[in-house]
Design a protein that fits this description.
This is Signal recognition particle protein. By secondary structure, this protein is α/β, with parallel strands linked by helices. An 8-stranded mixed sheet has the order 3-2-4-1-5-6-7-8, sandwiched between helices. It has helices at about 5-15, 25-40, 45-60, 70-85, 115-125, 140-155, 170-180, 200-210, 225-240, 255-265, 285-295, 300-325, 330-340, 345-350, 355-365, 370-380, 385-390, 395-405, 410-430, 435-440, and strands at about 100-110, 130-135, 160, 185-190, 215-220, 245-250, 270-275, 280-285. The protein is elongated and about 85 Å long. Strand 5, helix 9 and strand 6 form a beta-alpha-beta unit. The structure holds guanosine-5'-diphosphate.
């Protein structure tokens, strides 16, 4: 679906990669071309504007990684921007109730692929060993009910028996009570669509949402309809408490940009992509994977990520050498604090440590919360260079000045200095016994 965009972007990057050093003007021009490529691919203008502004900011703020070509760094920035635009790392998945049955409401225009998607979801859930009930509330098109029943058979799940003449709200109530009585884990309500946005359709879907109190209300939109799909999503979102989007026909050869705007315009997560007519043609939406596919430059992204890591490693090694000599000043402490934050703060860091339970209590006692990390960084940055090098010179008047600068009490500065001394002592001890201390501290 993104082929044209992929081609355009690769040609931008190809042109850049011929050059060794990139000036600000080069990057500016490249981003302008990326901008045009995104607009031509039908990405909504405000979304593109935002994307370019952020990319520009990142390009100017990015540490220069000498081991990678500047052009590759631009690829990485574009990739990061796409991932962000598509909703960030990590797939959303369905929000299943702890108290079954989970109610899933499907909404969307006629022909968007709503009924097919309902069946695809049913199949996916039944493969996860969930007992699923499919119910069609489409009283306008009797054939729709038959279609869902047929699809249910294909998916190997149950469908609600068809009772002629019932209203959509009544069918919804019947589906819910059947699901409860018969111990279904999930009940999927497929509402009636219309060919265009239509008040009666919206009102009916809203009424059913009020009856069913769905845990998930998914809008199914045809990604090939471009900006219309975005408008549809927005209109539905105004009337229904949508929780996510499913974009169908991602296997088609449309321009695809609407899909890229969808998340940013509606604020709703894209949860699934329909990738074929077949009943198993539903992929969990993964922003990183889609961005990688659009750029078609997965190896470069990986390379830049690795180089950025190496940069951190080189810094860490330099720090280790200084530590081994017993040097640990407040600048190094500030570096440590910043690194801790980058690694997802204390929580993220602790997840990486083996034997973490032992240190958890100590850390809690030492008050190393993320907020505290920020305040400590503020204190250190309020010090002069000399003070950071030689904390011993910090007498009362200097401490008062720093406290005012960082907006904290003097007592907090004293705590930080004490902590710094303890860390410096600990590092000294570790460097003396040849690194065994590190292992002891981590409880390995
Ligand atoms: P509804 O009116 O919204 O319920 O739409 P349907 O579920 O009946 O789908 C309309 C047509 O689109 C059917 O022929 C489906 O097979 C087809 N369709 C649905 N999803 C996809 C998809 O992700 N890819 C492709 N290629 N076709 C799809």
């Amino acid at each position: 679906m993104f082929d044209a965009l992929t081609d355009r972007l690769s040609s931008v990057f190809d042109r850049l990669s011929g050059r060794g050093v990139l000036s600000e003007k080069d990057i500016d021009e490249a981003l302008k071309e990326v901008r045009t490529a995104l607009l031509d691919a039908d990405v909504a203008l405000p979304v593109v504007r935002d994307f370019i502004a952020r990319a520009r900011e990142q390009a100017s703020g990015e540490a220069v990684i000498r081991s990678v070509r500047p052009a590759d760094q631009v690829v990485k920035i574009t990739y990061d921007g796409l991932v962000e635009m598509l909703g960030g790392e990590g797939a959303e998945g369905l929000n299943l109730s702890l108290n079954p049955p989970t109610v899933i409401l499907m909404a969307g225009l006629q022909g968007s692929g709503k009924t097919t998607t309902a069946a695809k979801l049913a199949l996916r859930l039944s493969r996860e060993r969930k007992k699923v009930l499919l119910a069609s509330l489409d009283t306008r098109r009797p054939a729709a009910m038959e279609q869902l029943a047929t699809l249910a058979v294909q998916a190997g799940v149950d469908s609600l028996p068809i009772v002629a003449g019932q209203s959509a709200p009544d069918i919804a109530r019947r589906a819910l009570s059947s699901a409860r009585l018969q111990g279904f884990d999930v009940v999927i309500l497929d509402t009636a669509g219309r060919t265009t946005l239509d008040e009666a359709m919206m009102a009916e879907a809203a009424e059913i949402a009020a009856i069913g109190q769905p845990h998930e209300t998914l809008l199914v939109a045809d990604s090939l309809t471009g900006q219309d799909a975005v408008r549809t999503a927005r209109a539905f979102h105004e009337r229904l408490p949508l929780t996510g989007l499913v974009l169908t026909r991602a296997d088609g050869d449309g321009r695809g940009g609407a899909a890229l705007s969808m998340r940013a315009v509606t604020g709703l997560p894209i949860k699934f992509l329909g990738v074929s007519e077949k009943i198993d043609g539903l992929d969990v939406f993964d922003a990183a994977r889609v961005a990688g596919r659009i750029l078609g430059q997965g190896d470069i992204v990986a390379l830049v990520e690795k180089a950025a890591q190496d940069l951190d490693t080189a810094k860490a090694e330099a720090m280790a050498r200084r530590l081994a000599k017993g040097q640990f000043d407040l600048d190094m402490m500030a570096d440590q604090l910043a690194q801790m934050k980058r690694m997802g703060g204390m929580e993220g860091l602790m997840g990486l440590l083996p034997g973490v339970q032992k240190v958890k209590k100590q850390i809690a006692e030492a008050n190393i919360s993320d907020k505290a990390l920020d305040r400590q960084a503020a204190i250190i940055s309020s010090m002069t260079k000399a003070e950071r090098r030689k904390p011993d010179i910090l007498q009362a008047s200097r401490k008062r000045r720093i406290a005012a600068g960082a907006g904290v009490e003097v007592a907090e500065i004293n705590r930080l200095l004490k902590q710094h001394r303890q860390m410096a002592d600990a590092f000294k001890m570790m460097s003396r016994d040849g690194g065994k201390g590190f292992a002891r501290m981590a409880g390995m």
